Amino acid sequence: MSGFPENLSIRRARDNDLPEIARLHFAAYPGIPMTLDERISHFRDDPRIPLEDNWVCMRRDRLVGVFALYNFQMYRSGVVYPAGGIGRVAVAPEARLEKIAYWLMARAVEIMDQNAFSLSILYPFRHSFYRKLGWGIAEQVRSYRIDPSTIPLFPERSRMETVITNAEMEEVMACYQRFAESHNGLLVRDDPVWYEHIFKNCLTYAFRAEDTGEVEGYILYKYKPHSVTTAFMVSDLIVREMIWTTDKAFRGIWGFLSSQRDQVKCIEYTHHSELPIEYILKEPQKVNGMHSMLSGAETASIGSGLMGRIVKLRKVFVAGNFGEGNGEVTFRIRDELNSGNAQPLTVAFENGKTDFPRKSSSSLILSTDIATISSLYWGALSFSDALYLGMV
């Protein structure tokens, strides 16, 4: 890794690192309700990722940084691609503002490049930091706060049933897989993620089709209680995930949420698709009934969620699935962390397939940075908007 400081080293985590890892994690994520001992157990026993897939940064003999590199599999156009998930990034309080996080991410990109990860995803603590290192905005999300009484009581709610048995859980898992295979950017989930991380921490209800008996949608949720002294029987309902594969399942799930109105004041739901939920509400407004003269009906705030990075540009092009465009383009991409992406690359597109002509350049040249091309790849940014904004 070019320019890596001589006094730093980055290696896989070991069991005897756990007390220091827990200290860093506690300082970086104080809002997570876990003690130091609980954090040690979490890193040691997390079913989603083994301890050795956490990486620590040593400055001489002191542990000053840590990150986790998840081995994800991501769906795109029905095909599964390896994707490195970055998480648990933490720097010791005494080492902050000393570029430790920069070198952690530089090493992460190097590891992913060496291990054939073509893509990477993460939740950013600060967009500007990760954008400089090549991660671009991958999606737009809407965070809703909805009064359940404003949702229609769709009759399809009668097809909703609680998920309790292993067989019922497997039906939910199969529903997710069918949905994920037809949508870009969703992850493959293995049994430990479902059973140890999702089903143990959420209530689950599924919509079962009347004609086929198949699970066509489901909801994962939990409750956020209000004050015991003032509203001990009332809570907010936090939706972790809603999946529907038919319009009947859509109405069944939303009708189920509507029926919770007696003991739920507010439904909190982060929506990742472009479906305008406002159109199903009888009265789109804030939970407290207040209206803004400027924004009118106000039910959601809009933001960016995941950030994504193309780790191996050529490999992404080899995979194809680029729509119906035809022609040749020479890409000149700036990538501070992976020099392999910074070499000029001429690509011929023909009906979604790609080829690499033996020429140094084409008549059309696209020059941008890896973060922008990553946002274009994920579909969070259109080419026309990128041109208008001066990003390409």
Give the secondary structure arrangement, pairings included:
Layout: E1 8-12, H1 18-28, H2 36-45, E2 54-59, E3 62-76, E4 79-91, H3 100-114, E5 119-122, H4 127-132, E6 136-137, E7 140-146, E8 160-162, H5 166-181, H6 191-198, E9 203-208, E10 215-225, E11 235-244, H7 247-258, E12 264-271, E13 300-304, E14 307-310, H8 313-319, E15 326-334, E16 345-350, E17 353-355, E18 365-369, H9 370-378, H10 383-388
Parallel strand pairs: 4-5, 11-12, 15-18
Antiparallel strand pairs: 1-2, 2-3, 3-4, 5-14, 6-14, 7-12, 7-13, 8-9, 9-10, 10-11, 15-16, 16-17
Helix pairs in contact: 1-2
Outline the structure in words:
This protein has 392 residues and is an alpha+beta fold. The chain folds into three domains: 8-117, Gcn5-related N-acetyltransferase (GNAT) (Aminopeptidase, 3-Layer(aba) Sandwich), CATH 3.40.630.30; 142-304, Gcn5-related N-acetyltransferase (GNAT) (Aminopeptidase), CATH 3.40.630; 312-388, Nonspecific Lipid-transfer Protein, Chain A, CATH 3.30.1050. The protein is built from ten helices and 18 strands. β4 (79-91), α3 and β5 form a beta-alpha-beta unit. α1 crosses α2 (36-45). The model has no long low-confidence stretch (mean pLDDT 90).
